[in-house]
Hints:
By secondary structure, the chain is α+β, with helices and mostly antiparallel strands. The protein has three domains: 1-79, DNA polymerase, domain 1; 82-257, Uridine Diphospho-n-acetylenolpyruvylglucosamine Reductase, domain 3; 270-376, CO dehydrogenase flavoprotein, C-terminal domain (Enolase-like, domain 1, 2-Layer Sandwich). The protein is 38% helix and 20% strand. The strands form four sheets. It has a five-stranded antiparallel β-sheet with strand order 5-6-11-7-8. The protein has a four-stranded mixed β-sheet with strand order 1-2-4-3, covered by helices on one side.
Amino acid sequence: MIDTDATQCGFCTPGFVMALFVFHHGGEPADSATMHEALAGNLCRCTGYRSIVEACRRVAQGPADRFVAEAPVLAEKLSSVPPCTEYRCGTQTFLMPRSLEALFAAMEQHPNAILLGGGTDLGLRVSKDREALPAVIALEAVRELRHVTTGADAIEFGGAVTYSEILPHLDRHFPSFGAMVRRIGSRQIRNLGTIAGNLATASPIGDSIPCLLALDASVKLMSRAGERVLPVESFITGYRKTALAAGEVIAAVRIPFLAPGQKFSVYKLSKRFDQDISTVIAAFRLERLGGKVQQLRAAYGGMAARAMRAVALETAVKGRPWEPAWLPDIETLLARDFTPIGDHRGGAAYRLRAAAGLLRRFQFETSSNVPVRVEAL
C-alpha cells in the first residue's frame, strides 16, 4: 500500500489491507474483475482506487509470509476450543443451537428472542442504535438449515445457507440473479448474509425478494407443530411483515428452474453500482409462444410498501407481441399497480419512469440477445 502510494487520509486503509491479505492467501488470478470483487465493500473517499488496485496486483503473487507458517499451529489451537452454544453477559443471552430440536427448545425458552441469520440488518440495531438485545438465537450452526439440494425441477436451500454458498448454484441456473447478489454486498457480507434473512426482514427494497417473486419461489416454514409451504408472494404480507407464526422458522427456500425457452433477468438501480441500497429493483420472467407473450411475471422492489408483482401490467401484456410497439403505455399500466413514494434516493415520478425503463431494457435484451451494459457507460 505504501509502495504504490495507495494510502491517503487513511480512513479506508485497514479494510483494504485486510482485503489484500485475504486476496494474497486466496490464490486467485490477478485479473481486473477478480481484484475488484476482492476489494469491493471498502470505499475510498479520496478516490485512490487505481493505486489500491495496483497494490492488490503486486501482492497477488507475492512471497509467502509469516502467516503461512503459523496458520497450521493456529488451526490446531482453535480446533481444541469447544463450540460455544450459549453465552451470557448480564441480562443478555446469546444461543447457538446445533439442531432444529435444540432451536425449537431455545425458542420456547426465549419466545421473544431475535433469530439471527447473517446480522446484516440486526447489526445496525446494535452498532448504530446501541440496542442491548435481551436474547438472540443464531441459526448458522443448525445443521438441518444448511443443505443445498438440486432436484429435477428446482433447487432448495436451507434457511442458514449464505449468499456465498448459494452463489455458485445461482450462477449456474439463474446467472442474472447471481450477478445481482454480487452487488448486494462484498464477500464479507455474502459470507454471512442469507436469502432467508432477506425474506424475514421483508424490506420493500430487499434485493432478492423481487427475484424470488418473479421466479415463483416458495418458502418452507417449520415449527414443533409441523411444516407448511407458502409462495413467497403470500409470505410477504406488508411493510416488514411476514406470515411467520410464533415458533416458526424459515427452514428452506425453493426456486423452480426455468422451463425451456423462458427468460429471466433482474435489474437494480442505485446511486452507487456496488454495495448500495436499491432505488428500484425489477425482476422479470418471460415465456413466449409464436412471438407473443404467453406469460410475464414482473416483480418490483422500491415501488410500494413491500416488493410485489405488477399484476395489471402482467395481465395487459398477455397475448401481445413481444415488440416495442406496445411499450408506450407501460407507465400507465405500472401506475395501476404502484404508487411509489419519493425520498432521498428518488422521487415517485422517477421511480415510475425507471420501472418502465427497466422493462424496456428487458424487452430489448430478450429480443436482440444483446445485453445493455449501462453500468459500463
